[in-house]
Amino acid sequence: MNKLFKTLSFVATIAFFATACTPPVVEVAKAAPAEVSYQAVLGKLLSDQTVAEFIASNNCTQAGPFHLCRPAGVAFGSNEDNVVKTAYLYVSEAEGFSAYKGDLPMTLEASDTMADVERKMAQIRVPRVLKGGFDLGLPDESRSPDHTHYWAIYKRFGVTVIYNTPSANKNATIYAILVE
Fold this sequence. Notes:
Distance between the termini: 85 Å
Number of helices: 4
Shape: globular
Oligomer: single chain
Strand content: 15-25%
Radius of gyration: 27 Å
Number of strands: 8
């Protein structure tokens, strides 16, 4: 019995020292990747590190000149020189895209109606270098190319607001925003 006690004491001592002298395993918290907005990507080459990291971290797929970043709620369009020229921001879940979580252009919000957008656009002052003038708040052009969504094109701001209706309706809400 004495021999068994000595053996168990020896094993317990070894176990104690093994656990007491071994540094504890510490989970190191990794910082979440910084949110990259569409502004950080526009005008850059697809090979730019910021663009490449955004595409890789958001599981973007390529479809011709477009990179569809469904988890981020954005699709990027590039030109023949592989420069990102447009960003298509989904303000709510649609067509397999998540809602875009970053700041929208021109202080727009996902819940804005057409009336809200026109009011906000009217408050933005631009230099009077544009020929022909325009009505403050109203788009420079509009159309319904797919007969499902109304496109209000604000060329002076490089923004197209796409609504969830095929015609001008002040209560319509934003479907997506195209930024150039």
